[in-house]
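**Fold in tokens:**
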Amino acid sequence: VWQEEDLDFLQEDLSDIIKESIDGVDRVAAIVKDLKSFSGINDADEEDADINEIIRQTCHITKSQLEGKLDVILDLAEMPTIFCNPAELGQVFLSLLLNAADAIHENGKVRIKSFIKDAQLCVEIRDTGCGISESDLAHVFDPFFTTKDVGQGIGLGLTVCLNIIKAHEGTLTVISKPNAGTQVTILLPIRHNKA
């Protein structure tokens, strides 16, 4: 008799578990769909733009949010304009700046440097934050990987950044050590509108 009661209880629980699983899969599918549409480049939004101006605008947007927590130091060399999607590159710089802020507990520094390297435009973002362990560093570009507390992030920031930079025919690398900060390096080809 007790086995029949347990079976009824399990059947009731099973339908709830299946429903929750389906809801979870639907949420993941929606996130993946948004990620795919966000990471695709829209050629209509591309134009010749000044990368330094995109960086300055991003710093301006985050100024009040970061004030008192960290100092942002800009070391921007004179650069040629490049044919790009300024809104998407702005999203990359915003995400990287906010990641740096999350890694800094107080009175930290973020240095953003732009220069030409090997006939490419280079942007380095270096912070004095807590750094990333070697085991976590191997996964920073994996979708849904995060070291943040539950509810603080979904682990798509660096994945989206990498996809945007790749869509611009560039590279994005991360070097980090625990308690030694992190450096993100972006290399972009110097290309111009062919029109």
Notes: Residues 37-41 have pLDDT under 50 and may be disordered. The radius of gyration is 21 Å.
